[in-house]
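User: Show me a protein chain along with its predicted structure.
Assistant: Here is one chain, sequence first, then structure tokens.
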Amino acid sequence: MKIGTFAKIFDVSNDTVRYYIELGLLLPDKKNTQYQMNQSSHDDMAFIAKLKKLHFSLQEIQQILSYQRVTNFMDHEDIDYYNTLLIDKKNQLIQKKNELSRAIQLIEKSVHTSYPVSERENLTGVPLAFVNILYCPKCHIPLEMKDVSINNNSIQKGCLTCTCGYEAVIEEGIIITANLYETSPYPSYFYDIQTIKEMNHGMINLFEKSNFWFQKALQKIDLKNKLIVETNIDAFVTLPKYIDNFDLCASYVFSGYSLAMLKKVRKRIEGINPLLNVLYILNSDLNLPLKPLSIDVFVDSLTTNDFSLLNPQFPIRILKNRFHSDSIIVGGYSYYDSSSKSLRNISSIYPDSHQHILFPNYIEENLLVNGFQIIQSENIGYCTDPGPFFDYHVKDEKFHMLMYLAGSVM
């Protein structure tokens, strides 16, 4: 009998039969280069199939089959040996069954049957406390407000205008500025389930290490009555993960280019603490409608990487007039070694990028030019496979992560 016919009888693949032959579980005849499955192989395969149903491993089956071939289970001692193996396997399966039962019970307890709902859900908007710092990014004067709808001490909708022609609108409590991307510049967001599934685990762990660094650095800063701003929330969000540890007296601004992402971040933050003073801005050019000298702490959660990948400008340069002499930047920056092939890929894939983005000294040099100096830094590690969304990455090259704290030298 040929292998193909034999495999069909036992409902296995030809490769499985060949593998069993290789292991010595099956001992067919061989004519020239062809195996011929004999009656002994048929009997052995039937015995193997029975033992597999009893959850014996191939290694265990090999031992039992060898013992059977030597003794043929002819006397009481041999049969007792086989029975002992069966009883031991039964006890193992009972233990496994109990473990599975406990695991099922834990899963049932862990499944969320209800979800936290903020009492202020769908009611949050632009807090009235932010009205005094909403300024025209062109003229740097207070924006005028009209057609305003206020609910629960926050603005739900309205228009923001300036005599120079600048306009922004408030919709569903979110400020929507002009000059937005027509489509997302990135294939997905880090809060997206599919993205998380496709992200490399090493890269996710590197991001988590950076989150720990952000948290420790921010906890050492007195945030009381401070304005903390984080941009680039579509790709990487730092503050919402740890915002419950920060000062209730602080004010927070989150900016991104996806309305859906802003709403998702808002929902998460409201679930953590609905009493926080938070402003959400839909924006893609970093010309935020904020008062000059208003930003106390800027969280650069890879804003520099992602913005300069799509623009020839350094992001802090655009935001420069919003900082003051005591402003602090807590940031993360990814880079390659200067000889990396990945750096050459960037200019061809992203022709509008800054010419030195992802170079080792890019962040330090450009911060200094724009009035900031790194006062603390730490390279927290690297990843050689950041995942499919880093389309410029060359396999096995090191994608480093540098964390830094910068102070103003203005």
